[in-house]
Design a protein that fits this description.
This protein is α+β, with helices and mostly antiparallel strands. It folds into two domains: about 1-45 and about 95-165 and about 265-305, FAD/NAD(P)-binding domain (3-Layer(bba) Sandwich); about 170-260, Polyamine Oxidase, Chain A, domain 2 (Alpha-Beta Complex), CATH 3.90.660. It is about 30% helix and about 30% strand. The chain has nine helices and 20 strands. It has helices at about 10-20, 60-70, 95-105, 140-150, 155-165, 200-205, 220-225, 230-240, 290-305; strands spanning about 1-5, 25-30, 40-45, 45-50, 75-80, 90, 110, 115-120, 120-125, 130, 135, 165-170, 170-180, 190, 195-200, 210-215, 250-260, 265, 270-275, 280. The strands form six sheets. Strands 7-2-1-11-20-19 form a six-stranded mixed sheet, covered by helices on one side. Strands 14-15-16-13-17 form a five-stranded antiparallel sheet. A three-stranded antiparallel sheet has the order 8-9-10. Helix 1 (about 10-20) packs parallel to helix 9. Bound molecules: flavin-adenine dinucleotide (FAD). Flavin-adenine dinucleotide binds near residues 29, 30, 32, 113 and 262.
Length: about 300
């Protein structure tokens, strides 16, 4: 049986691992240049910065098994954030080393953006056509709805009500290369009721030799300023945190707008099957959310087949 998985983020890779172990013929397609989706690490001027997911929890034994395996290969590391009681985890050399390691044994094709689903095949922007018996889709739900609409596929009333419930918050992220590391204790600081909700020092985090910070705007600020001039927004965000990052310390910066960052309203089950079709949806919009929820979504879907 041929299974196509759209998306090589945590959910797609987690599903692919299980399905490969079960002996299915699996192909994972991703539109990105690399794998990982929102577990993204960016290189700017030889400096590295996690600019999507920053750290993650490990609450379930299923996820613990994977993380322990990765920890013994020095891919993940524990992280103690002063403002959080329980231990958190990071990619020891950047968040995207985790999906890269997971993908290394899987049949993943990158630069393959799926643009059409038709007659049990998916078509990509490059013109390739992949037939499937079952299709797993793991991108954020609004992008799945667009893909369905472009493919002139119909949702049932139940499909519409399930998918309509799932919501994501936006996040504007600024990555800045610095002359010197910050003095942020433990490498990360959570801010409340301010334009910026999070600052991470990637040098102190241990993922780069060159001092680099990642700054995330709060969801309220991100929603309000999402379509504004990015340079103006970055300037405003950086000036709001000048007690932590002196503007004279900044060498260069880049801004990225994540339209879908965390899934704030999710469907309670780990995955969802489109009514009367061999199409299954997974990702952080299902179950627990975040990195661990995306893993569990793919894991439970893989075990369902
Ligand atoms: C700024 C930010 C901060 C975050 N902070 C945290 C955090 O600190 N802790 C935490 O646990 N979580 C955090 N998250 C959330 C976490 O990153 C996600 O929950 C998780 O990575 C989602 O994984 P996924 O596989 O469901 O989706 P994704 O990672 O989005 O994977 C979907 C994949 O589908 C691909 N794709 C999309 N459309 C197509 C198409 N048409 N054809 C082919 N491929 C396609 C994308 O390229 C992507 O690789 C954060 C996210 C962001 C953006």
């Amino acid at each position: 049986m041929k299974i196509i998985i759209i998306g090589a983020g945590m959910a797609g890779l987690s599903a692919a691992r299980i399905l490969m172990q079960k002996g299915y013929e699996v192909t994972v397609l991703d539109k990105g240049r690399g794998v990982g989706g929102r577990m993204s690490t960016r290189t700017i001027e030889n400096a590295k910065a996690d600019h999507g997911a920053q750290y993650f929890s490990v609450k379930t034994t299923e996820f613990q098994t994977l993380i322990s395996e990765l920890q013994s290969d020095n891919i993940t590391a524990e992280w103690h954030l002063v403002q959080r009681e329980n231990v958190r985890y990071i990619g020891a050399k950047g968040m995207n080393t985790i999906p890269k390691k997971m993908a290394s044994l899987l049949p993943v094709l990158v630069n393959e953006k799926v643009v059409l689903i038709e007659n049990n095949t998916v078509k990509t922007e490059s013109g390739n056509i992949y037939p499937f018996d079952k299709l797993v889709i793991t991108m954020p739900i609004p992008q799945i709805i667009d893909l369905f609409q472009n493919s002139k596929m119909l949702f049932s009333e139940n499909d519409k009500s399930v998918l309509g419930e799932i919501k994501y918050e936006p996040c504007i992220a600024v990555v800045a290369v610095l002359k010197e590391p910050t003095k942020i204790v433990s490498g990360g600081i959570i801010l409340e009721n301010q334009p910026v909700s999070w600052i991470a020092d990637n040098f102190q985090k241990g993922i780069t030799q060159i001092p680099t910070v990642t700054i995330h705007a709060s969801s309220a600020y991100s929603a309000k300023r999402f379509d504004d001039d990015v340079n103006e927004v970055a300037k405003d965000m950086l000036s709001s945190v000048n007690q932590y990052i002196n503007s004279e310390n900044i060498v260069s910066s880049q801004t990225h707008r994540w339209r879908f960052s965390n899934a704030t309203k999710r469907y309670e089950a780990h995955f969802y099957q489109i009514e009367n079709q061999a199409i299954y949806l997974a990702g952080d919009g299902f179950g627990m959310g975040n990195v661990e929820g995306a893993f569990l979504s793919g894991y439970h879907l893989g075990n369902r087949f």
